[in-house]
Amino acid sequence: MTKTYNITLIPGDGIGPEVTTAARRIIEATGVSINWDVCEAGAEVFKKGQATGVPQATIDSIMRNKVALKGPLETPIGFGEKSANVTLRKLFEAYGNIRPVREVPGIKTPFQGRNIDFVIVRENLEDLYAGIEHMQTPGVAQCLKIISRKGCEKIVRLAFEVARAEGRKTVHCATKANIMKLSEGLMKRTFEEIAKEYPDIQAEHIIVDNAAHQLVRRPEQFDVIVTTNMNGDILSDLGSGLIGGLGFAPGANIGDDYAIFEAVHGSAPKYAGKNTINPTAVVMSGVMMLRHLGEFEAANAIEQALFVTLDIDGIQTRDTFGNEGAASTSAFADAIIKNLGRKHSTCASRNYQRVKLPKVSKAPDLVKVTARQVNGLDVFLESSVDFNTVGKTLETAVEGTLVCLKMISSRGVKLYPGSNPAVDVIDMLTARFSVRETAYDLTDSDIADIMLRISKNNRWNHIEKLNMFDGKPGYTKAHGED
Ligand code: NAP
Q1: pLDDT for the residue numbered 377
Q2: Which of 88, 270, 352, 369 has the fewest CB atoms lying closer than 10 Å?
Q3: With left for phi above 0 and alpha for psi between -120 and 50, is residue 292 left, alpha or beta?
C-alpha cells in the first residue's frame, strides 16, 4: 500500500509561490503521495498585525506533520522585529542547517569541472544570531555570542552523521578558536572530542578565514564543513557562489523532531509573479525532504531529471541562460517532469542513507564541575573621563574591600596601570577586580557592597563574575594583561 505523507507547505512571499508550486508539481509527478497542508507565514501575516509573522494554525500544522517545505519569507520593514524564518527555526528547535553545495552539470561557472561536492552543516540557533543586543553607552553596541557545549555537541554529531549517511570521508570544523578561545574554542574542543567516536571519518580543524580562502582556491578538497552559525551563514553563501548562485542552493533545517526544508535564497521581490525565476533551489530542498522521508528513488529521479534538463537538454532559466530563449519557471518545471526516468550520463546521484539523528541529553547542564570559585569581577563602565583618573577613583572606592583593581581595559586592550598612547579609547571601559586572597570565593553580598561603592562615582552598565571552574579560568585576559 502506498504511504501518504502529511506535509506543511508554506508558499511564502515574493517568488515563493512560483518556486514552491514548481517543487510541488515535480514531487507529485514522481508518484510519492503527499497531503499538502498549505499554510500562511510572512509578509501578509505581519501586515494583519501578527507580530511573529507565523500564525498559530501554521505552528499547529508543523507540530502535527513534523515536516514542512517552505518558500522564502520576507520581514516587511516596520512590521515586527524578528524574521519569521528565524522564528520558525527557533520554535521547532531546528538546530542543524544543512546546505549542500554540488556542482550542477551544464551550469557555467569559473569552477566548472572541479567536481565541487560538499555539505555545510551550520549551527542554526546560537552564536551572535541569538540576537541578544544591548547599547552599552549611547555610542557602543554589544551583541552576545552564546555558544553552548550542548549546541556544539548536537551540530558536531549531526555533521558526522551526515557524513556517514552520504558516504563522505572527511569532516572539517571551521572556527575562529584562535581568537575567541572560549566561545569558538568550545566548538573546536567539542569537535575534537566527538571526532574520536567516528574513527571511520577523518576530522580536521580549519580556521574559518582560511576555510573561506581554501573554498575558493581548492573547493574540491571539502566533504563536510561543520561550523558555528555566523561562519556557516557566510561560508554557505560563498559556496552557492561557486556553483552558479542562489538559484542552486537548497537547505534543510533539522531538529530532533521537526524538519523544515527551504532554499537559501530570499523572496527576490523584483521577480515576483514574472514566472522567470529559477526554482532549482526549492526543488532540491524538496529532494532533501524526500531523502529525509526515506523516498530515495523519487529523490534521485528528480535530481537526475534536473541534471538532464539543465545539461543534456540545455533548458535553463534566465539567471544562467540570459534573457533570450530562457525557459520560464513553469516551463522549466514541465521539462523536469517530462525528464523523470532519464539519467545523466556522468553525474550520478550519491548513495544516500537516512541521517541517523544524534541523541544528546536534554539536561540543561551537560558540563558539570566539582569546584567553582568567583575570584574577581569585570565591571563595564560608561566613562569619557581619562582612564588614569577613573583608575584612581576605583582604587579608592574598593579600599578596605575583599578586591583590588587589577586593571582597566577598553575593547580588550589593557590601559591602566601603565600607558598606551596609541589606543583610541571609547566611552566603555572594563575595570577588572581580583580577590586580594587568591582562594577567596566572592559572595553576592560582597559583590553588592563593592558595586554600591563603585556606583557612587561611576556609571556602570553590567558586571561579569570571574568564574574559576575546576581551577580553570572561565574568562580571557585582555591584551597586555599579565
Ligand atoms: P534574495 O531574495 O535571495 O535575492 C537576492 C538576489 O539573488 C536576487 O535579486 C537574484 O539576483 C538572486 N536570486 C535569489 N533567488 C533566486 C532564484 N531562485 N533564482 C535566481 N536568482 C535568484 O535576497 P534579498 O533581496 O536580500 O532579500 C529579499 C527578501 O527575502 C528580504 O525580505 C529578506 O529578509 C528575505 N529573505 C528570506 C530568506 C528566507 O526565507 N529563508 C532568506 C534570505 C532573505 P539578481 O538580482 O542578480 O538576479
Answers
A1: 98
A2: 270
A3: alpha
C-alpha cell of residue 329: 519557471
| Portion of the chain with pLDDT greater than 70, in percent | 99
Atom of ligand 1 nearest to the CA of 19: 18
Cell of 46: 505581519
Q: Does domain 108-243 have CATH number 1.10.10.10?
A: no
Q: What is the pLDDT at residue 78?
A: 66
Phi and psi dihedrals of 230, rounded to 5?
-70, -40
The list of the chain residues with pLDDT below 70 reads: 1, 78-81
271 catalytic? Reply is no
User: CB within 8 A of 449, min separation 6: which ones?
Assistant: 401
Cα 409 to ligand 1 centre (Å)? 42
* Rounded CA separation 216/224 (Å): 15
Domain ranges in the chain are 1-95+247-348, 108-243, 372-473
Per annotation, catalytic residue among 150, 176, 188, 414? 176
Q: What is the pLDDT of residue 208?
A: 98
What is the structure's pLDDT at 1?
65
Under 8 Å between Cβ of 106 and 314: yes
Can you give the pLDDT at residue 105?
Answer: 96
Nearest one of 33, 94, 97, 98 to 62, comparing CA atoms: 94
Catalytic status, residue 117: no
Taking the CA atoms of 29, 30, 36 and 42 in sequence, report the sign of the dihedral they define: negative
Q: What is the pLDDT of residues 384-394, one digit of tens each?
A: 999 999 999 99
Residue 334 neighbours by CB under 8 Å, 6+ apart: none
pTM score of the predicted model: 0.95
Q: Give the mutation target among 104, 267, 310, 332 for probing the ligand 1 site: most ligand atoms within 8 A of CB.
A: 267
Is 95 annotated in the active site? no
Give the residue, by CA position, lying nearest to ligand 1 atom 43.
266
Set 95, 127, 129, 414: catalytic member: 129
Architecture of domain 372-473 in this structure: 2-Layer Sandwich (3.30)
Task: State the DSSP string of 111-174.
Answer: TTTS--EEEEEEE-SSBGGG--EEEEETTEEEE--B--HHHHHHHHHHHHHHHHHTT--EEEEE
Q: Which of 117, 233, 319, 334 is catalytic?
A: 233
Distances (CA, A) of 441 to 64, 258, 347, 436, 474: 50, 44, 63, 11, 14
**Same fold for the pair 108-243 and 372-473:** no
Distance, in Å, from the CA atom of 107 to the CA atom of 32, rounded to the nearest integer, reads 28
CB within 6 Å of ligand 1 — which residues?
19, 72-75, 85, 245-247, 262, 265-268, 277-278, 281, 319
